[in-house]
Amino acid sequence: MSEQLYRENILDHSRHPRNKGEIDDPTATYQDTNPLCGDEVRMDVRIEGDAVAEIKFSGRGCAISQASASMLTEMVAGQSLEQVKAISREDILDELGVPISPARMKCAMLGLKVLKSAIYGVPQDDDTL
Ligand code: FES
Known about the structure:
single chain, alpha+beta, binds FE2/S2 (inorganic) cluster
């Protein structure tokens, strides 16, 4: 896919986020802030057995943060918890497909940090994802 298509994909996800909302009775939930801008992302997960049966995100932020959270919810739907835990920052950057400057890295990683914090049940540091 060309960089132009990746850019259009990011815009599409930020304008029409997938799995946006909240789950009434989530098995795991976490919310955190990008310390650089104050934007927030929350992830609600319903785990059945050892897999993600349902996932929704909410919050607000820039196009990169909202698109990466939206893409992440599509990536992990139906995955096992082990698969979710194995998602790396490179996986997110591959999914975004455009160069992410160091200043925007926390935007890109906010969703993954929040999701892993929810799954592990303890806050994760986005520098070690
Ligand atoms: Fe706030 Fe990107 S500028 S999450």
